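Q: Could you fold this chain for me?
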Amino acid sequence: MSTQHQETAASPVLPPPPVDSNKAIAEVRPFGADLPRPRSSAPADMVRTVPSGSSAAAPTVSLVIPTKNEAANVGWVLEQIPNCVDEVVLVDGRSSDATLVTALSYRADLRVVVQQGSGKGDALRAGFLAASGDIVVMIDADGSMAPQEIPHFLHFLSNGYDFVKGSRFMGGGGSLDITRTRRLGNRALLHLVNVLYRAQLTDLCYGFCAFHRRYLPFLNLTTPGFEIETQMTISALRAGLRIAEVPSLEMPRRCGRSNLRTFRDGTRVLRTVLREHQTGLSGRAVQSVRHLVHGSSGAVVARPSGELLP
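A: Sure. Below is the predicted structure, expressed as structure tokens.
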């Protein structure tokens, strides 16, 4: 079952910036999973230690940033990236403004990927496939997420967790941008996910996440839009990954209008939640209803668990 605890490691492998000791860190696990006690040290392949007289290779970190017409915002984001990030992959959705020129003026070492499809989900898939780091972090280009929070995510990935997601609604988190309608929608969808997948998440529709790249094939990324954030979380739950939530502050986008459309994208998230729920009595009931509503075109086709579909 899920537990919630405060991190007390005395010597973290990747020390995050100072955090208020009252800020809780939530661990989320699928129902029925056997939970070992939180490990005080990272797995052997993740430990950042340097033996006396020698050097040890540390896990590399790739930051994936999907962009489209974010020339006014992307420079600020790139300026805030901490030194623990080894590679920045910028996926451009064929921007019509100066996004690429601006980004390269701030970081000449950017790895630029030109998106062939459309939508945030498609952009993230392209970025994940291009990333070469052992750890992959995803963040938005509009300035609503603080890159300075990345070390918090890396700290827990280095101490036994597989998938770490930001939460605006746990102790120490918050949002300066969310509307009342979006808050209510997120709460309803979050409750549905927690019931159907027997989890104890505190946030759902928020795209600040990090994970070990070795688990990418298990995330089953197929959705094209903003709903990919929900699909990633559900897939991580279904795959039995050890999930942690960390407090995150969502800020207003710095300039321009968001591409998010509350009702359209909320409906897509709902469809994703229902489509992915296929186990147990409730899962069979949900899929039966979907089959009746959509006919044969809505039939569920099994996907190989280890295949990353385009």
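A (continued): Residues 1-14, 29-54, 296-310 have pLDDT under 50 and may be disordered.
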